[in-house]
Amino acid sequence: MVNEKTFDYENYIQEQLRRIDDLDERRFAKKLLMESLGKVIAWSEQKYAALEKRVQNELDLPWKYFHVCMTVIDKKDYDPINSFWFPVCEEDVKKKREQRYETIYLAADEKVCGEFLNMGTLTGVNEATGESIRFKIRRSDRYRRSMDKLYRLFTGNHVPWQTIHMGHVERFFDLIPVTEEAADGQTIETGWMIQDDKWARYIRKDKMLLWNICQFDVHSREYRLPCIDEVFYEHVFYLPKEQETEDGYLVDAAEDIISIRYEKNRIVLRTTAESLEDITIYRLCQGKPEQTAGYHDPVLSNRRKDNLAARYSQQTGNFIQTPLELSRKVEEMADGYRIHVLGYEILDRTETEYLAGDMNSFTGVRLFSNDQRKILLLRIQAEERHEEDYLYESQIRYILSQLQMEFLEYRCVGMLESKACQSNKLF
Hints:
It contains eight helices and 21 strands. The protein is α+β, with helices and mostly antiparallel strands. Strand 14 and strand 15 (about 265-270) form a beta hairpin. The protein has a six-stranded antiparallel β-sheet with strand order 7-4-5-6-3-8. About 25% of the residues lie in helices and about 25% in strands.
């Protein structure tokens, strides 16, 4: 919130006291003002701050404790005692077994990633023998499966789903060695290097994906809760003492769970089963990421800029969809990127390829068959150095994906414009 209390009463009193020439009067006035009026003002300030905090707490958004952050690191830099970052896939930190494919990270923009996938195959060179190796390219699906599981956890725990930033996830690809005799299945036994210099500048080997979600198994303590015509059980899970108050928790519950109740220091599951097994709780760590050597790649998250007006509109459910409101939503989700909306346009159809809000496609939600919705085109000013940041367009696609969930009557797309095209504004 904007701090409107700019008046410093202590300095003001000190300045006014200097005008009193008589030292005894000045001393008496200082004691009177600082010990009486000063305490009243300090008490008023304290009550005002408490009221402000109470209003903010009443307008808290339900997803405040469930922000998801992701980054990538070299596997050799992984720190298992970092309290904020955890591997998305545990197999990344386990001992390597016989590899039938290798997962690489492509540090390139949207267009180059599309070209890489459409190329179909990649040629490498065996560092030991010098022989050529041909790889089949496919999108890595193990990280996507983790995103799909996370979505099911959100819906199962009745937590509103917010778009997960897929910028890093979309840049992981599997390289499967192939031979002329077999379509695939050959193992990678030795080191290899990329033959084409064009792709060598983009490909990063031995990278792994991290997020701010850790999981732990818990043991239940059940007691019987009688009802009029049947009996239910409540299983109580006490949270760790070292937990942060702003952290969110998701329960991987079985099908016989009736309800989940979150309290200050515990989670209560209501179920028809007398005992539960294999219950896993996922903790979504909030706050500031812990710094560790080697953790220097960009952090992508779905955190939003705090805004009291946005909280109020979410609570009341009254949305005034105006150009300024649209710009505010974009600014709220920019997360450090300079993304300025020049205008918008409603189109019946288009043949041009635009940036699409498709980061929620893995959820399987299909609201319209033979989609005939009109197109909401956002014209966005291209940042001067956006070509040097390969994640810039991904940030825009993330914003479009979240807007798509709010503007269901349109298909949300975006287009980058240079400064030369800014004369024709649409607002």
